[in-house]
Amino acid sequence: EDKVVQSPLSLVVHEGDTVTLNCSYEVTNFRSLLWYKQEKKAPTFLFMLTSSGIEKKSGRLSSILDKKELFSILNITATQTGDSAVYLCAVDNAGNMLTFGGGTRLMVKP
Amino acid sequence: DAGVTQSPTHLIKTRGQQVTLRCSPKSGHDTVSWYQQALGQGPQFIFQYYEEEERQRGNFPDRFSGHQFPNYSSELNVNALLLGDSALYLCASSLLRGQLGKNIQYFGAGTRLSVL
Questions:
Q1: CA atoms within 13 A on the CB side of B80
Q2: What's the confidence (pLDDT) of residue B85?
Q3: Do B4 and A42 touch (CB under 8 A)?
């Protein structure tokens, strides 16, 4: 059975801090790993990673995939209160079915 | 360009009743997937529809059924509701045809179902 585990479960930081969110996975037929941000209801797409060692960047957010060790990290630098959300990691098992982790709840205090 | 839209936003039902949730995919998308998200947990895959057929199914009982229409919109039906069916139901759309495996699922805002 495919499995995705995220850590930590929750995190409280102050504006300007840097955070690292972790995602490990066990999937029988890996195709890609995706990161989503969920503020209230709709998860919004952040990144898709398919190849190991490729770092994706979008402003203050970046992500790396390690296909050998089966994990990914999401980094957020210079955090802002608007970054407060649940961050979800999901793996596509080549059947276009996403298996999600439980999420990391990030709270950024002013 | 409208994103993924779901209706209704909220729904309250009692045990044993039946419910139908609706989803319109993002313009240009041909695939709809449904997920159940219990409070404090990540979404769980229910099933996926492509070309009006159920393409994949997660570990959910037959009480959960669906349909996809020729315009790619979709419905999720749940029969004989249980208290444990209370959750946020998310619909995601993607473009499967010709994407060479790099398709991204975009989510709607969900339907919050409460079963009393």
A1: 5
A2: 98
A3: yes
